Amino acid sequence: MISFLKSKRMVIFSVLLMLISPSSVYSHGDVAMADHRCTLHVGPYSMLYATYQPQIDTERKYCDDIPYAGNVYISMQFNEDPLYTLSLDYRAIRDIKKRGNLAKVENLGTQAEIDSATAYYMQPKVYDNGVMLVTREFDKGDYIGIVTARETTSDKVYTSVFPFSVGKGSDLGLHGKHLVYAILLSALAIGIIFLFFLSYRYKRKEEKQLRDSES
Fold first, then answer.
1. Domain 28-172 class?
2. Most buried of 52, 70, 155, 175 (most Cβ within 10 A)?
3. Would you list the DSSP string of the chain?
4. What does the domain layout of the chain look like in residue ranges?
5. What is the C-alpha separation between 52 and 59, in angstroms, rounded?
6. Angstrom distance (rounded) from CA 59 to CA 97
7. What is the C-alpha to C-alpha distance for residues 133 and 31, in angstroms, rounded to an integer?
């Protein structure tokens, strides 16, 4: 009985730990939300990532999915100093193969296929001001963003891949989406704990019946 209770407590504790861990709340390819901030991971480095549509709302920012077709501002603010010396380019391709959240460098296709699917490409550049800004008009659809970082003093190349949609009407914003995922995880955790409670009650009932049958 003691070992049974310990195992139950450990699982419940793990679920609760998952709940309070910000990094587990939301992830879209190499874009993940943590501490109410969207982070784009590029190799060993990271950037604060946000998209805006000031013509629709001057204050709201989004993590990945952009609610309306049209003009989009994408901001990538460097978190680490080495990024200031790297050559970076940005590419948005149409998700023709419907990779979605499973999109990786390896399954994007050949370079010719990538070039054919490209909706926008920004040439490599060193951003010594620490901010990479993309301004572009996007049609409604599913896209895959690709950020490539190259070290200027070596042949090291880092590639970040992340899906996003445009014009699907989800106007939750960064914090709204964070809240939705937190609520879903909370409901999942409560459901798991409830199932464990029922399992515990059932096991106690079986033990009581066994004791009664032996007496």
1. mainly beta
2. 52
3. -HHHHHHHHHHHHHHHHHHH-GGGTEEETTEEEETTEEEEEETTEEEEEEEE-TTT-SS-EESS-BSSSEEEEEEEEESSGGGGGSEEEEEEEE-TT--GGG--GGGS--HHHHHHHEEEEEEEEE-TTSEEEEEEEE-SEEEEEEEEEE-TTSS-EEEEEEEEEESS----HHHHHHHHHHHHHHHHHHHHHHHHHHHHHHHHHHHHHHHHHH-
4. 2-16+179-214, 28-172
5. 8
6. 34
7. 16
Q: Are 29 and 101 in contact (CB under 8 A)?
A: yes
User: Tell me: the pLDDT tens digits for 109-143?
Assistant: 999 999 999 999 999 999 999 999 999 999 999 99
Does this model's pTM top 0.90? My answer is no
